[in-house]
Amino acid sequence: MLATSLPAILTLPRSEQSAALRALRCALPPTATPEAWNSRFGPTSLFAAWTASSLMRGLHRSNAELLRPLLARPGFRVIEIGGGDGALWRDALPPDALPPDAQGELLLIDPVAEVGELVRASLPEGVSLRFRQARLEEVDPGSLPPADAFVASLVLHHIAGADRAQRQAHGLSGPGKLEALQTLAGCLRPGGFGLVNEADIHCDIELAPGEPLLEERLIDSYVRRCAPSLLQDAARRPDADADLRARWEAVCLHWCLEQVDLANAPLADRDVYELDVPRWRALFRRAGLAVQAEQFTDPQNLFRQYLLTPSEPR
């Protein structure tokens, strides 16, 4: 039902889509118990289905192309923020994609203990892992070792607010995206670079709960661009079995359509605080990072990859 009803809804005028989406969700039969983000891993989880999607495979492969030359250099160090289920290393950078004598270190920062073991099991033999169980915004900037690269894929949007001052103006404490980026920029060695992947959509804290523009932007990102790609995978991917196709449809429902409910959630309860491309560029400049290259990594123009270097030579 979802595969036929959602495309029909997206042909309606935008002003009618919100009500039609609510009606569709009420009409859909119940699915298996939904998973919260990062609550379950393993081959049968929704997270595994998400990382197997064309959206995420394109993102990981694009990151891998930029990382491979670095990983061929002995003694490299990469800092990765948010490891997911290790797909970058397992699927995009498997051992046979790197020199057989590749030697280096990955410092992984993630709040979920299980992620450390998943990434460790995905690393090539010559790459050692240092795991720090924490959120990036909890990390002392001076505690990170010098690194040749950092990777932050779809994690910075979980930090509300462009900076600490904006958070305080909206009743929130702690650092914002700017301070997190400054922490990462400060650890880069001379010649080092950063990779950031984020969606091109603006839904940060200056858009208040219940504001129609916030709902419109969440629909645009999750329903108009993300969900159709997942449904296309379910309909056309020859490598997908019935179980994986069912999990992609569950992701569409629980992680895409239901995400629109957050437009009415209290500010601190939202889990996505995205910026569009011009706002990300401006924030990178403030953090002392220059955009050397950027591109979308999917045909839907949803996820933008930024290749960053320090604005001033180190």
Query: What is the count of DSSP helices, taking H or I runs of 4+ residues?
Result: 11
What spatial form do the alpha-carbon principal axes imply?
Answer: globular
Instruction: Give the tally of β-strands.
Output: 7
Major beta sheet summary: 7 strands, mixed
Which consecutive residue ranges, at least 5 long each, have pLDDT under 50?
none
Mean pLDDT: 94
Query: Do you know the CATH architecture of one domain?
Result: 3-Layer(aba) Sandwich
Report how far apart the termini are.
56 Å
**Structural class estimated from helices and strands:** alpha/beta
> What is the third-level CATH name, the topology of one domain?
Rossmann fold
Strand order of the largest sheet: 3-2-1-4-5-7-6
> Helix amount, in percent?
40-55%
Radius of gyration: 20 Å
Brief synopsis:
The chain is α/β, with parallel strands linked by helices. The chain has helices at residues 2-9, 14-27, 46-51, 54-71, 87-92, 113-122, 164-169, 177-185, 212-236, 242-257, 277-286; strands spanning 76-81, 104-110, 127-133, 147-153, 188-199, 289-296, 303-310. The chain has a domain at 56-207 and 270-310: Vaccinia Virus protein VP39 (Rossmann fold).
How would you characterize this protein structure?
- The chain is of the alpha/beta class and 314 residues long.
- The protein has a domain at 56-207 and 270-310: Vaccinia Virus protein VP39 (Rossmann fold), CATH 3.40.50.150.
- It is built from eleven helices and seven strands.
- It has helices at 2-9, 14-27, 46-51, 54-71, 87-92, 113-122, 164-169, 177-185, 212-236, 242-257, 277-286, and strands at residues 76-81, 104-110, 127-133, 147-153, 188-199, 289-296, 303-310.
- It has a seven-stranded mixed sheet, sandwiched between helices.
- The mean pLDDT is 94.
